[in-house]
Amino acid sequence: MTVKNGEFIWFNGEFVPWDDAKIHVASHALHYGSAVFEGIRCYATEDGPAVFHLIDHVERLYNSAKIYRMEAGLRWSQDEFIEIILETIRKNKHEACYIRPLVIRGYGSLGVNPLNCPIEAYVITQEWGDYLGKEAVEHGASVKISTWARFSPNTLPAMAKAAANYMNSQLITMEAKLDGYTEGIALDTSGYVSEGSGENIFCIRKNKIYTTPLGASVLPGITRNSLIELIHDLQKPGEALEGYLFEEHIIPREMLYICDEVFFCGTAAEITPIREIDKITIGAGTRGPITKRLQEEFRKILSSKAADRHGWLTFV
Fold this sequence. Notes:
By secondary structure, this protein is an alpha+beta fold. 27% of the residues lie in helices and 29% in strands.
């Protein structure tokens, strides 16, 4: 994946050059993972740059901060933070980019108790290619079921997009990469399918479309929610998914092997088909027709070639 950094980073109220955005080595976030963040996409559309679900992403960022008792330290309202993100895109002159808002606990003390550590906020932008690679987007990723499980309820809050949670994600993706796979899928502590290292999962079997419920230790994905809207659109008479049923349902591991199609979704991965899991071919071993149709419709909306009927886009 090719990456081009933005020239400036927004840091606590001012723009600083990319190389000058620094934090103290004693910052609480470095020692204890006390940070929350978002991953957001800005797309080049026929009507100019537009950010995908900007309002929802900022709301989830503030919800994550609230769960970790960081919200009181954020000096900006959600509406102000939305404008900060848009201004960062303008400042860096992006037509399309990946956006990383980050809220951390800075330096206050080296103890575990974070409450006396200041809250710091950043907005970082980069220009990205396909997260899992162009080959995976078109033909499907090779995936394995990870030996690492997702955390159980009441250990770490899966609904918060917190840096600490991604230590688990790192173990999942490193294991997959070192074993020769594109990505890994984690199970929950009951042995049911949870999600990828940074992606939600959908699967299709016998005219039913499934995704894992929030109770399976999954992040409430914003792309996931958008695809549920898109699936409902395409279930209408004369559309590609007429006759298909959609369910949020627990998914046994072995069910993945006998599905017609399986795909990842997320801000970074967008919609990425899975061609094999644990060396077992999924469906025809390439991108399936339903996955392709969802990709096409998703892309049309994000490029302004189809109506933004659900209000997904905020124009820069």
